[in-house]
Specification:
It contains 10 helices and 10 strands. Helix 3 packs parallel to helix 4, helix 5 runs parallel beside helix 6 and helix 8 crosses helix 9.
Length: about 325
């Protein structure tokens, strides 16, 4: 069983790989989603991440579908105490932005869909330049003090805005955020690494990193090959259009190293990519989603897959060239 990790300066103990809920109710139907969550928890995972906006982009969807599926699983399985539930606010149609009234309405609606009286982690999903940050920070503190979330977190915030949020919280004796969710993976490191970037500000303020797009929208699974796809025509899938920037020789070179290491461990390339990211400075729990039980396998393998220092260094060298 994988060793749990403490998320930032919180008291939350989470598994080293989190399960992304963006596919629940979208490319994974309710029954399949329930089986995936069963297997993830039974395999040693405990962090389930969603958002009120998932999956409003799908035809006929309005957002909240993922939360509703997770809620039905919680009702049927009675396993609320076995999981750490994270959700987010600002993207659901009709609940856009981070205005005070919107936050208070959104958390109540999320809790109703999830069928719980609190979430463990409540994220500001995207910064809202149209709302004074002081108002947003105060609203999140109100939600926390009301017991509707245990902790506050940020997603997609720039380093400067993270600094501002933390300064406002400190000046008003509010609880600071405990986690930051950035875009981060072997072929997309620029948002997190380097002086003044998200990794540095997270370390300064004790925020645990919970990366999304950990598998680069499926590119790091190895399913894309230079002889079968091109930037003009990526393989057809629900996320096909999101990988176009990765269909370059230097990115495929990273996948070649992933495959070599994966073969040595008898696991899938995705497991290796997640294990590398899991051990990057400041990272607590990369997120990965699975629309089938087969796709969940590498996520479970990554919970405790141990790469050697040489293997991690080889991946980093290949990634440096991206």
């Amino acid at each position: 069983m994988a060793a749990m990790r403490t998320l930032g300066r919180s008291e939350l103990s989470v598994s080293p790989i989190g399960l992304g809920g963006n596919v629940f109710g979208w490319t994974a139907d309710e029954a399949t989603s329930h089986r995936i969550m069963d297997a993830y928890i039974d395999g040693g995972g405990n962090l389930i991440d969603t958002a009120d906006g998932y999956s409003h982009w799908a035809e006929g969807h309005t957002g909240g579908e993922s939360e509703s599926v997770i809620g039905s699983w919680l009702r049927h399985r009675k396993r609320r105490d076995d999981v750490v539930i994270a959700t987010k606010v600002s993207t659901k149609p009709g609940r856009e932005g981070l205005g005070v009234d919107n936050i208070h309405a959104a958390i109540d609606e999320s809790l109703a869909r999830l069928g719980t009286d609190h979430v463990d982690l409540y994220y500001a999903h995207f910064d809202d330049p149209d709302t004074p940050l002081e108002e947003t920070v105060a609203a999140f503190e109100d939600v926390r003090r009301a017991g509707k979330t245990r902790y506050v977190a940020l997603s997609n915030y720039t380093p400067d805005r993270v600094e501002e949020w933390c300064a406002i919280a400190a000046a008003n004796d509010f609880a600071p955020p405990v986690a930051l969710q950035p875009h981060y993976n072997l072929v997309h490191r620029q948002d997190v690494e380097g002086p003044g970037n998200r990794g540095e500000v997270a370390a300064t303020h004790g925020l645990g990193l919970v990366p999304y797009f950990s598998l680069a929208s499926g590119f790091l699974t190895g399913k894309y090959r230079p002889d079968t796809v091109s930037a003009a025509a990526p393989a057809a899938s629900a996320r096909g259009g999101w990988v176009e920037d990765y269909l370059r020789p230097e990115c495929f070179a990273v996948v070649d190293v992933l495959r070599e290491i994966a073969d040595a461990h008898a696991v899938a390339p995705a497991a290796v990519a997640l294990a590398w990211l899991r051990e990057r400075p400041g990272v607590v729990a990369p997120l990965a989603s699975a629309r089938t039980l087969d796709q969940l396998g590498p996520i479970l393998d990554a919970l405790d897959l141990a790469l050697s220092a040489e293997e991690s260094a080889a991946l980093t060298r290949a990634s440096d060239l991206v």
